[in-house]
Amino acid sequence: MVIEQEPAGTEDRPIVEMHGITIRFPGVLALDDVDFVLRPGEVHSLMGENGAGKSTLIKALTGVYAIDNGSITVAGESRIFAGTADAQAAGISTVYQEVNLCANLSVGENVMLGHEPRNRRGIDWKVVHREAARHLEHLGLRIDTRSTLSSHSIAIQQMVAISRAMVLDARVLILDEPTSSLDRGEVEQLFAVIRDLRDRGVAVLFVSHFLDQVYEISDRVTVLRNGKLIGEYLVKDLPRGELVTKMIGRELDELDAISTKADRAIDRTATPVLRAKGIGRRGVLEPADVDVYDGEVVGIAGLLGSGRTELVRLIYGADRPDSGHVEVNGQPAKLTSPRHAIDKRIAFSSENRHEEGVVADLTVAENIVLGIQARRGWRRRIRRSEQQVVVDNYIKALDVRPANPDQLAGNLSGGNQQKVLLARWLATAPRLIVLDEPTRGIDVGAKADIQRKVAELSEQGLSAIFISSELEEVLRLAQRVIVMRDRRKIGELDSREVDLDALIDYIAVGREGNAA
Amino acid sequence: MKNLVTHRLFWPLVALIALITINTATRPSFLSVTMREGQLYGSIIDILRNSAPLMLVALGMTLVIATRGIDLSVGATMAVSGAVALTIIDASPTPHEPSVVALAIVVAVLVSLVLGTWNGFLVSVLGIQPIIATLVLMLAGRGIALLITGGFITTVNSDPYKFMAQGYILGFPFAFYVSIVAIAVVALVERRTALGVLTEAVGINPKASHLAGVRSRGITWGAYIASGALAGIAGILYSSNIMAADANAAGLYIELYAILAVVLGGTSLMGGKFSIAGTVIGVFTIQTLISTITFLGVPPAASPVFMATAVIIVVLIQSRRVHRAARSLIRSLRSLGGSAAGDDASVRTAQAGSGSSGDASARDEKVTSR
Fold first, then answer.
1. First to last CA, chain B
2. Chain B: nearest CA to A357, how far in angstroms?
3. Residue A366 near residue A359, CB atoms below 8 Å
4. pLDDT in the model for residue B252
5. What is the pLDDT of residue A1?
6. Of A406, A470, B210, B281, whose CA is between 20 and 30 Å from B36?
7. Which of B192, B213, B366 minimises the CB distance to A375?
């Protein structure tokens, strides 16, 4: 192995230097000549839209992907990682969004896994747990090390993962979307730990979609766009607007333009496109009514687990209701399976993109036409020429990137996968489209694209049910908002008459006085 | 060139060609085909003829595997099919009548189709795991076959039936035509309609396909029905070859060879993307291997070990990790000899290879665990 000795450095000598990193996937240049520098004792955020190359860069640094070009230097030593074990040996540890620990082992076992102190009779469990407790205490965590990991919240599990990284003597800690499932208090706790580690000289690489958190915790940011390096900046010198502009490469007042479109009057005297009366299922959802009119966007607001997903799944026939009935255009409709709903020109895009949305090993084109093909049945295959027209059309309309129909859908970023799904459903020419969390975990640019498309289509007469955890989004797009709590519909609001605070209040305490 | 190497049938083909090359090298007569009394003779012709039952079964298996399933009952189905056909012919006063044989074949294939339907019902409607669902018939099927033949090995004398496996048309064995027709029908139905891509969608992501409106139950069910029917035809060919319905020996272990053929052809046992052409290549690879064993005179006791060794080598030839390791080995050798002028990689590799120590480390191995 070649060892390049750096000239005696300043105290700011980087722990990680990546130069000219290039990674190619079939059909995509995921990273194009990217430089990245990480210094000890800093929290460094990696920013970019989905598909910008953030995860790819992290995976190059953690040895998951091999690099096609470029060099990685850790602590002045040039490295070639043949696997994650190599990266770990070099002092690089990663804590992923979905914690990658052994949920069925105890906390102590997880912390010390592979580094268990031994005595003559094998592993000395007493010492294992004592050591684990010591490491956890370093992070201000006092929990029973003999308790099962899965009995703790995701936040605690993440802390456990971090202490495990410390056991491995990590000099570089990578936190990939660590806060996406944490509540405010837990985020504070995590940040306290991060700050402590930083002060002890650990280099922390932080990735998050939450701008607030990036500004709160990081010292420096590196911005990527479309696989290329845009630049490295000190957080204190970079106003938010500028950061967002660098990430998406265009000004973003487009979201505001969308909101004006939602302020339309909807004709509610006509027959509704969809009318669900008392639809429910024991133990899942109390019976609820839903009406959706022509060209209307109905938002569903509520916390996770409030029954918003359950409601639309029952309407669509993905799950079987045990009460109530559904009318489509005034006609009673038995929607007992997705097929029936699709035949009635109702489309449903699940919140679970990976498991219930994209077919990863099929191409973008095949994914887009899947809905039409399913509706036609297997005997009448969509001709290539026909497919091409549809696919090109939607790739352009929704700005799917890369604009390559033969790309495997699984290789796309989250935002682009979501666009492909939207295309699949729009291609079936629905009267009503149900979108469950279509913008979750995707970047600002793709979010704007999707919202704009929904607003545009509803103006042309498409009806939609729009579910999102981001209430601003719901208020921006919907004319009417159904509020759910504890698996029950608690009311309906006219979105022109409420603001964000009122909506939050309603979700929290259900002030009936506001009901429209 | 790059496109050629990355094509997914490239390595399966390389394995087959390598096998044929080895055979030809050790036995120059391997490729020779002679004409005697209007019939073609030669090892290749034997392979074409003998591979027919496995070909049919493997085609069905490909479809089942594409739906994330597996069909262990194909061997037993073959036994049932042969038993049904021979019992009908045996019971007939005119076993040489083509209409009797035709009836026997149609009934046998229909019975197999029913068995496939049963499997499909267990899997797609009752949601039983495919390996368990088809295990039922795998164990029970041979018993059913024995019941049909009354516990005996039924033997018949029927020229039209004998023709199925042993007859020739235009010099080629009739069984080979059956293979060709089956391949063509399966390929056309899967790829000319949308059945293939819908099957793949169901295999890759059943939930997403269901929500997208794909009739996943019907597609899965259909795959098992097709597998049953194809196994039924294979059972006809097998029993015609020995002119007997041997419930215990018919199609023994063929499910395993069929799975192997499918996998050698590049279709993943995880379901999803499948390749008919790959399966065809896989079947020929296995049949060539079997014929190699016979020809080399490997003693029967040693032949399973020989077979296993050959299979391991073939699988390694196709392994992506092995390719990657080989590629990076070549690269590291090349970079060691990097100072050498000229672009000829092989020259450089040779130079570096001779001069390199253990320093050409495996650390250069490229691992992409995606």
1. 24
2. 5
3. yes
4. 92
5. 41
6. B281
7. B213
pLDDT one-digit tens code per residue, A323-356 = 999 999 999 998 888 999 999 999 999 988 888 9
Cα–Cα dist A109/A111, whole Å? 6
* Helix or strand (DSSP H, E) at A195: helix A184-199
Q: Tell me how close the Cα of A382 comes to any Cα of chain B, in angstroms.
A: 7
Cα–Cα distance measured from residue A298 to residue A313, given in angstroms and rounded to the nearest whole number:
15
**β-bridge pairing A480-485 and A463-467:** unpaired
User: Could you tell me which chain B residue has the CA closest to the CA of A358?
Assistant: B208
C-alpha B158/C-alpha B166 separation (Å) is: 12
CB-CB under 8 Å, A360 with B204: yes
**Could you report the per-residue pLDDT of B252-287, keeping only the tens digit for each?**
999 999 999 999 998 989 999 999 999 999 999 999
Backbone angles phi, psi at A9, to 5 degrees: -95, 175
Nearest to A339 among B197, B215, B369 (CB): B215
A173 has pLDDT over 60: yes
Among the partner residues B193, B213, B369, nearest to A381 by beta-carbon distance: B193
Q: Whole-prediction pTM value?
A: 0.74
Secondary structure (H, E, C), chain B: CHHHHHCCCHHHHHHHHHHHHHHHHHCHHHHCCEEECCEEECHHHHHHHHCHHHHHHHHHHHHHHHCCCCCCCHHHHHHHHHHHHHHHHHHCCCCCCHHHHHHHHHHHHHHHHHHHHHHHHHHHHCCCCHHHHHHHHHHHHHHHHHHHCCCCCEECCCHHHHHHHHCEECCEEHHHHHHHHHHHHHHHHHHHCCHHHHHHHHHHCHHHHHHCCCCHHHHHHHHHHHHHHHHHHHHHHHHHHHCEECCCCCCCCHHHHHHHHHHHCCCCCCCCCCCHHHHHHHHHHHHHHHHHHHHHCCCCCCHHHHHHHHHHHHHHHHCHHHHHHHHHHHHHHHHHCCCCCCCCHHHHHHHHHHHCCCCCCHHHCCCCCC
Is A360 close to B198, i.e. CB distance below 8 A? Answer: no
Alpha carbon of residue B52 to chain centroid: 10
Tell me the mean pLDDT in the region B125-144.
95
Q: Do A378 and B204 touch (CB under 8 A)?
A: no
d(CA B70, CA B57): 12
Is the interface score ipTM higher than 0.95?
no
Q: Provide the edge-to-edge strand list for the sheet that holds A297-301.
A: A346-349, A432-436, A463-467, A297-301, A480-485, A488-494
CA B223, B229, B234, B238 torsion-angle sign: positive
Bond before A338 cis per omega within 30 degrees? no
